């Protein structure tokens, strides 16, 4: 027998373990649980207690956004003379049964109930019979859980386990019994002569969740153990009982967030030839306060289209050019604001006792677009010691992260910056998430900037404790959801396809694991069948880590960077599985389990608790630093991307910075560790055009140009860790001169721009030795 506590059972489903239940579901469940325990009467009949359990489950089995229980719960007759409670997988009795409950009166627990150390009892024998009736006679393949309870004690089994242990073993005997071909015809005969012996054969293999609700009585009254109550709620939630799709799906689009963000940006969704396209609002519906229309007005009034280097690349007409240029600017600005929102959430989680001191992205501090620009360029783009007194006074706790995300772009330099925007009013979105003082959806209009900040503050960007009760009704918005949103916005001309998480997870798991085995085969001569065999061959963990780091992964149509982020997570999980994930002193992170769950890393300790960084804690600091620098090493040296769309390039860079931000840590000097300059790894280019194969030897051409591959790679390494804008500009200039020398060596002085564009992708090979190409998006979808 394998007995599990609720916590141990949830640890097998890290997505559910990580889920933070909302109060609007937890409160009705708690009230129903208190009522259940208060109304138990051992002198009452079994039918009386069935009614109590049905009432309890009706209040418990509610899903997200459901006001009533969407599952039909009723008595179903499985054996002569009685009926047992079942939960159907839908709203009617015609829906397949998903859960069977064998209920006993509390007073029957000694005679018929199983015990945690002795399962073979009449209740379990009855449950096996009911399962076989539903499975073999009813042909039901949709059973999820099987439950035994006397209202206090609960034994919860997985129906898949009964399928494996009992169907083949008992199918012939059960059908013979039902057809009257055995010597006994009563259910007691089946329980005692068939089910009992079958259970005895497999009793040691049976895994079950055991809990006694009486153990939670004092916790319910005093609310002393939030974790225990949260775990209890989860094992009674439909996400667990009915095995629903992940309650914590990080790639499920929040339509409310998406539609209101489009409203703030000044965009709309239209359907055309089966595609959903993003467009500027019609002329009569345009809102001057939206970011897009505000930007277009300023570009037009300042005649900034004339400053563009290649206006035709933005469109053939002036209207197309205005729209494309303004949209590119708006995406940059919104990228920055969303990054700051995630940073703020991270700081709040690090400083829970001083949360209010670390809030900086709100209307009280940012009253106009000029202050937002100050935050971009005077705060985030400057080390603390170099900030002006005004900037330090206004944002004293905002760290310097050294990200080129907060450097002025070439398009901004040629057109406008965010401080050029006017403080216009914007009508509130009809389906807004914002509420008025009466708790109703807000109406009217408000300052567009104040609206944007209030809108973002209405969502949870991941600042709460992982897996604990959610203390507010804010919906979660994380980096994966943001990537999905921007993938849609970016495909505004032709529509876009965001590769679902299960596809990228599968692609990465299959391709990267095979590539790791192949790399060890090449380097060490080991012909291992899988990672388990490879784990047993590794003796030098440091060398093995370097071998994994020698992989190169390039997505030739990178989009929002979803594949590269999935690749990053898979490589970290592989290192953990191989036992080669090390801290900065070289010590392996042995006491942690790291897996990819819902396309995100789930890091748990030996007791199933999620890892959370706590500044000042020695072990917490060790693990956080290890994760940050392992991710940094992989991003800098292993991950590369190309996309023809400049906006995609910026969004991909943002996604990778966000993955590093998740493990940002405080150094000994009290400052947050800076982020590397990873923008050089993601380039704009047309990967369908190539003059040379990727394994071409370009050293000869570079020597003729007065340079070499080592010099270029050295400049790339320096650029990754450059801490000032001046140093970054100098290194970019050096790399540009090397590229220019390479170009003139091949083409003379012909300034043909088409040839330069072709070289964009080709120069990537200077940073790579072997490249593992992601399957094309078309192949993945097929």
Largest sheet, in brief, is: 7 strands, mixed
Approximate helicity band:
40-55%
On the 0-100 scale, what is the average pLDDT? 84
Structural class comes to alpha/beta
Radius of gyration: 30 Å
Distance between the termini: 44 Å
The counted number of beta strands is 17
SS summary, helix count:
29
List the quaternary state of the chains.
single chain
- Global outline: globular
Unreliable spans: 753-782
Question: Major sheet: order of its strands?
Answer: 1-7-6-5-4-3-2
Beta-strand content: 5-15%
Primary descriptors:
single chain; 782 residues; four-stranded parallel sheet; 29 helices; alpha/beta; 17 strands; seven-stranded mixed sheet; disordered C terminus
Give a written overview of the molecule.
The longest helix has 33 residues, at 318-350. This protein is an alpha/beta fold and 782 residues long. The strands form 5 sheets. The chain has a 7-stranded mixed sheet. A 4-stranded parallel sheet has the order 16-15-12-17. A two-stranded antiparallel ribbon has the order 8-9. Residues 753-782 have low confidence and may be disordered. The protein has 29 helices and 17 strands.
Provide a short characterization of the protein structure.
With 782 residues, the protein is of the alpha/beta class.
Layout of SSEs?
Elements: E1 2-4, H1 6-11, H2 14-18, H3 23-39, H4 46-60, E2 73-79, E3 82-88, E4 97-103, H5 122-137, E5 145-149, E6 153-158, H6 159-178, H7 187-202, E7 207-212, H8 217-222, H9 226-236, H10 238-241, H11 255-265, E8 267-272, E9 275-280, H12 291-301, H13 318-350, H14 369-380, H15 389-394, H16 410-414, E10 425-427, E11 445-447, H17 448-457, H18 479-490, H19 501-524, H20 531-537, H21 541-549, E12 553-555, H22 562-578, E13 592-597, E14 600-605, H23 618-638, E15 639-643, H24 646-661, E16 682-684, H25 699-704, H26 709-720, H27 725-747, H28 753-762, E17 772-773, H29 777-781
Parallel strand pairs: 1-7, 4-5, 12-15, 12-17, 15-16
Antiparallel strand pairs: 2-3, 3-4, 5-6, 6-7, 8-9, 10-11, 13-14
Helix pairs in contact: 3-4, 5-6, 5-7, 6-7, 12-13, 13-24, 18-24, 19-22, 23-24, 26-27
